[in-house]
Amino acid sequence: MKIAHAECVISPEVGTLVAGYAPRDVSVRIHDDLKLSVLLMDDGERKGALLGFDLLGLDEEFTLKIAADAGKIIGCPPENVIITCTHTHSGPHTRSLCRVPADRDYIAALYEKSAAAVREASGSWLEVDTYFYSCVCGENYNRRYADGSNRGKYLPYHRSLEPLASGFRDRELGMLIFTAPGEPHPLGTVINYAAHPLATHAMGLGSHQISADFPGMLRDIMADNSCWCVFAQGAAGDMFPRDAECGLEAARRFADALAIAAMRGFCDAIRNPELYLMKSPKIRTSVEKVKIHVRQDLAETRKELPALAGKKEAETRVHLFALGDVCLVGVPGELLAELGQEMKWHSPFRRTFILYNSTGYLSYICHANAFVAGGYETNSSHIRPYDGFQIVAAAVEGMRKLHEPFPEERDA
Length: 412
What we know:
26% helix; four-stranded mixed sheet; five-stranded mixed sheet; alpha/beta
């Protein structure tokens, strides 16, 4: 297995509108730069790439062009390039909403920067051993609270109720780890964890600054202590970091906790190669198309997504990128953690990591019972309650096709 890595700065200029909260928040400073992280992979037969953007999300048309451009550079089909966004709320507008359209000038520059970063990475291939790892990291919580009658409250608006937060949370910190062949020290890692990057976005100045939030801090800590890091956001639709919206120190504490968990993971994985070293990290990919139904009750009251305007049905994509024993599942928006866990539970792969805001932006993707309780996520969702289940089913069926059958499924 060979890999290559590069990073580039993708920060907008000061004065750019900041996406994530009020539609007209204007940035007044860059606290820390937004980055694009590029990981290229070559298994000897196929090449592929993971591109991680410090952005709130990207429209489908943007992800398709970025993937196509990257594929041409490294010599692979577009479906071998998987994209994810960290979902920082302190970056530019890169999703098309009726209130504020995507910044097309910024996107045009992003195309050029993305292609340049892939070219830079493609000049520095290294032979590696590839490990995977997974551990429990309890630093997030479910921001949807439902009482005994299954009526919901949105905890960011009821902070005094946070000690009661008892909803499902995806506590898995998943990793890919790359070392020089036979060496015990990591060259780089992919870290997958589910938590809205809303720590630095404190009320006041925090909502008017450019910042990669805790994913950027995590990358810096890992680089200072161990190796480069690509952060891949998990199914964070209802996952919050501890002390969300409480500023830079809260973000640093959160990043520190993830980094410590990751470096503990290095020790465990690399010292137990019989468990975690991939013997055949082959690349396999597929794109599963899913028909979704647009909520008609929002047609007049909330005209938010131009891509769905006037439609009753639409098509979206789930992107699967398998590397040996691990499958990355790219989803088209803000998937609630419960649905992400369903994908993991029904996956035939040793480990399955969800990539948030990967193939486009469909708003929140909720499980049906969330609509019973109500709340911010379901009020913001533009697809019908059972379409989240259809997206899960498409991901699971796609993974079945990529993976060898279970022994129990094989014909006698």
